[in-house]
Amino acid sequence: MKPWLKFCWQGTYFCATCLASFCLWTLWLGLVILLVFQIFIASSRELALPDFVLRSLEQRLAASGVRAEFGRASFDPTGRVLIEQARVLLPAFSEPVVSARSVYLTLDPWALMVGRVEPRELQVSGASLYVTAMLSPTGRSEPLVHDLDFTLVPGPQGYELPQLAGRIAALNVTAHGGWQTAPLRHGRAPLPPIPELLVRNYPAICRQLIAVTDQLAVLEAPTLNLVLTPSESRGAVIAVELLAAGAKLAAPQALTATSLRATTSLPLLGDTPVAARIELAADRLEMPDQFRARGVRAFVHGRLQSSLRHYDYSRIEATAQWVGGAGIYTGPLLVRTTGRLPALQVELATQVLNEPLELQGRIDAAAQSARFRTAGRFAPDLVDLIGRQLHRDLRPFLSFRSAPAFDLDVEFKPGWKFAQLTGRISGGGVDAYHVAMDSFAGHITFDGRRFLATDAVAFLGGNFARGSYEQDFTTREFRFLLHGRLNPPAISGWFREWWANFWREFDFTVAAPDADVDVRGYWGRGPETAVFVFADCVQPVIRGVRLDHAIARLFIRPQFYDAIEVFATHGGGAARGNFTRRTAGAGFALDTMTFDFDSTLELPVAAGLVGPELTDMLKPFVFSAPPSVRARGHIDGPAAPKGVHREIHVTGPRHRDFHDL
Q1: Which of 48, 130, 436, 636 lies at a C-alpha separation of 20 to 30 Å from 239?
Q2: Which of 555, 477, 471 is nearest to 518 (CA)?
Q3: CA-CA distance, 69 to 103, in Å (whole number)?
């Protein structure tokens, strides 16, 4: 080998050896430096945040019109950034609107190596949303949302919210789920970034939160749970659940509720109205006037407007396991309303004291008027409960032995003034002011002053009556019109002793008379009561005299009895005439009596119809056959002012022999 070639080879070998040694030592030096750097990182666990990362974060916020201030910022090589004492300010306000105790931001480390900042996860702890002094009702900057912790994970289509917990005033809030920010179906605009949303809607958010804070004062230990489900058409659908241990309302009606729960579903974005149902539930509802309700549930159906701030309800359904107050209770209760205030259609079904009740009608809250129809059965115990409310025992006046059925139309004029009640009522077993009825039925009308019962029918033992009853509750004037097979003593409870005293001398054991009765008067003013009676009876016994048939038209007032016309038959004879009779106010002793009869009855029978005064006078006379006579006279009884006096005239042709005993 030539010398110069050998020299070149040796030089090349030496250079290569030196270069290899340099590379080897350089590699070892790099490894040692990296090891030292790793040891430093492992011991310190945090580094100063690179300027380009901080500038990138600030630029992103500034693009949305938000300015951020950080108290301290650090990161580790894994891409986790810790920002402490962070504050967010808006251009229109000098005070911070958001603050956070700490913010953990996880970045993509591979993107950092090329200078890009791509967040993978955001964790915020101890965040607060403030209402500035300019918007605060107190004139001071105050936190509306506080103690807020949440984790946010951005994705290609939107955001995922693994967890959120915080407080709005006394309201505990939790949330999880996610929402979509990519272009939505049907070309709907996506949800803007959160900083941009804050800039656009901060005043509106503050006003809404202030209103919510004021309303939350009525709730005890409230909790709001939110679940967000991503939606291609609405961004997200939010399942809302509000829980509270209790609530106290002062207006429009004092009300206390326990164990409240409200649920609904709302769209995050809404360009068009959407159907929404709100479900409400409470274990107990109580009012100061002893109103109670247990197991209350309500379903409100309506439409949520595009602004998501206005809810148009169209139907409400409410149920309760038990409702009671003032001694009255209902069984399972169902209420359904359709329409919107002020005009509502109402349906109700329940049981009052174990008796069914249904109601349907229309309410106009603006005009304060209503009209509805109600049907069911009237529980007998309601009479006692109503009496206790009126502080009066109503059982002597009305007492049901069984629940009567009713079907009524009720109307209230503007101003909630009662206008009219009309309908039918029927039942069996009732004691109406000391008169026992086996059954009754009729059509009734009441306008707040006048009560009218027409087509009324009642059965009283062997008696049957049909007719009407009307009363003016202002003047207390009343009137009965009765027709049927009626034994007058059977209704003695409606009158004072004078009625029973008059009919004491009548016996309708064989058959009650067919009668028409017209009674007029004023309750509480007995002397002004007037009674017209027409009676047609078979085999009555009058003053101990048994007749075959009798017909009478009577006018009766207390202590005054006027037999306008009387016709009676016995055997082959008959009698026709009239009489009047007055009695004393106390003891009912005879005052005066006048009579005028034409008779072909046997003389003792005819005399017995008038009374013992004529019987004693004619006892000495005996006819071989019933005479045709006219008897008229005037008798003053023991109660007469001038004492006992009799003036009796008996005349007639002599067709048969008679003699004086």
Answers
A1: 130
A2: 555
A3: 12
d(CA 115, CA 40) in angstroms, rounded, equals 23
Can you tell me the distance from the alpha carbon of 415 to that of 494, in angstroms, rounded to the nearest whole number?
A: 37
Give the H/E segment covering residue 601.
none
Report the distance separating Cα 264 and Cα 269, nearest Å. Answer: 15
92 versus 218: the higher-pLDDT residue is: 218
- 290 sits in which H/E element: none
Radius of gyration of the chain (CA): 50
- Beta carbons within 8 Å of 20's beta carbon, 6+ residues apart: none
State the number of CA atoms in the 13 A half-sphere of 320 facing the CB: 24
487: exposed, middle or buried (Cβ count in 10 Å: 0-12, 13-18, 19+): buried
Give the span between the Cα atoms of 345 and 352, in whole angstroms.
22
pLDDT, one tens digit per residue, over 69-87 is 777 777 666 667 778 888 8
Yes or no: say if 484 and 460 are a contact pair by the CB < 8 Å rule.
no
pTM score, whole prediction: 0.66
Above pLDDT 90, what percent of the chain? Answer: 15
199 against 171, higher pLDDT: 171
Which of the residue ranges 112-126, 216-230, 634-648 has the most confident prediction, judged by mean pLDDT?
216-230
Contacts of 377 by beta carbon, 8 Å cutoff, 6+ apart: 355, 356, 357, 403, 404, 405, 406
Helix, strand, or coil here: 621?
A: strand
For 332-354, what is the mean pLDDT?
89
